[in-house]
Specification:
By secondary structure, the protein is mainly alpha-helical. Helices cover 83% and strands 0% of the residues. The chain is built from 5 helices and no strands. Helix 1 runs antiparallel to helix 3, helix 2 packs across helix 5 and helix 3 packs antiparallel against helix 4. The longest helix has 34 residues. It is elongated and about 60 Å long.
Length: 126
């Protein structure tokens, strides 16, 4: 169980780094678009919402796929679980909550950086 916990922590860390990297790259590529949006009146909250929505789109797709895959594979691993029912809803809720929280934290820094973009600088960048 210790090794499984270590691997789960490593997988969560890799997910955080991946989500941060993809969201940060997306913000860097869309700097001029964000600048134009801010120049025509988009509020900083709208920019943050846009960046967070982009980050959560892939996370929700991955959560859905992982949930469906776990429903298929859990009966195969039921013999390895001790003290926990294979279809325990509390486990699924806890895992989804952790992944959503971690992905929100990973997407927040690039979203905050996108909010700080100066429209004039972004338009001159092109």
């Amino acid at each position: 169980m210790l090794f499984l916990s270590i691997f789960a922590g490593a997988a969560l860390a890799l997910a955080v780094v991946g989500i941060y990297g993809i969201t940060s790259y997306s913000v860097a590529q869309r700097t001029s678009e964000i600048g134009v949006r801010m120049a025509i009146g988009a509020r900083r909250v709208d920019i943050m919402r846009m960046v967070l929505a982009d980050g959560f789109a892939s996370v929700l797709l991955g959560l859905t796929g992982g949930f469906l895959l776990s429903l298929v594979l859990t009966p195969l691993l039921a013999g390895l679980l001790f003290g926990v029912k294979p279809g325990n809803p509390a486990n699924y809720v806890l895992i989804v909550a952790i992944v959503l929280l971690v992905s929100a934290l990973a997407s927040f820094l690039p979203a905050q950086r996108a909010m700080q973009i100066d429209p004039l600088t972004a338009l001159r960048h092109e």
